[in-house]
Amino acid sequence: MVLTLMGCAPSSPRTTAPEASTSTASGQPGATTSVTPAGSAGDAGAADGAATDGSVDTAGTTTPPPITARRAMTLMFLGDPPAEARSCRVQSSAHSSDGSSSARSSDGDAIRCMLAVRFAGDGQAGKSALALYDEAGTVAGIEEPHMMDGGWRGMLKLVPEPPVGRHRRHLVWLLGAAQDFNQWFADLHRDKKTKARYRHQPLELRFFRSVGRTTPSAYASGWTVAYNVSGSLHSSAKAVRETMFHELFHLNDRDHGNWSEQHLTPIYDSIVTRCTNKWNKLNTACLRPYAPHHVMVRGGTYYAFQPGNGVWEYAAELATRYYVEHREIFAGRRLAKPAFKCGPEENARSWTLLVDEFFGGIDHIPACP
After folding, report:
1. Is residue 84 part of a domain?
2. Stretches in the chain below the pLDDT threshold 70
3. Nearest alpha carbon to residue 274 among 265, 264, 282
4. Are 61 and 197 in contact (CB under 8 A)?
5. Residue 17: which of 310, 359, 297, 232 has the closest Cα?
6. Is 359 inside any structural domain?
7. What is the maximum alpha-carbon separation in the chain?
8. What is the pTM of this model?
């Protein structure tokens, strides 16, 4: 199935993080894609005791620290918390202020209290936000208002938009995605000695709305995912799962030292060169066998190869394909279409590189005929 993005102007299902760069076919960074205010997704994670770095255990899996109550308050209320929320934090601080397990427990109690305040006007949304925190340690907050320079998308006005009322379904879908990812990784690791090096929780979620637009659907930075309640891709639980796995790859890619640019650029460049015609335009039919995922940009081509996106988006779509194919195998279903690695030899090379770096060399997809 091909998803064509709808809108009055060409739009994108996703964008890279605010401080990330666009890329030319050669993989060289171009102009930054966003202008962000202090404390927004561009620098989230460094201030207020944010949890950005995890330790690595002997199995090679990332064990990130939890989000602190101080950070959660900023995330939920953007520096202007009501008295009820400040009371949650004060009560927590009264119990413990060190880095012990009791302090983390107090932080958890404070965050649950603040979530109740944040979602006081919508009990159903509050229940989902609390369940998401208990499932994954992920905190639902709001994005800073700012203008984003979306490159080929144009200038975008982003405003905070809590996931309540008609938007509460996004919390339900995100909770489902967190539960799905936990089960997916359990299935991936079953009877395996190696472990994936792919962090998927906890996250800071910053909800926003793009004024008059449906793009970007999401962007990621500093273990924060900014999520558009009017995003063109967020139409179903399945679409949200796949978008989140895509954004998680961007975070893990940076955590691995910008791995995709260093290791996939030669493959990516060779595909782009092969599929560029004499008018210097990409041929979508030529790209089809190499596109890891079905997402396309209206008026453009496959998102993995959309000009200006670069190798980073090709890699994120490849990781999403790995997730989708393995999810089918774990459910006991046959793949709906041939395995990606069984296509052109470039596919097999990029697949193997990704699997070895991020997923411990684990590949449950049957061997190619």
Report:
1. no
2. 1-63, 92-105, 152
3. 282
4. yes
5. 310
6. yes
7. 69
8. 0.82
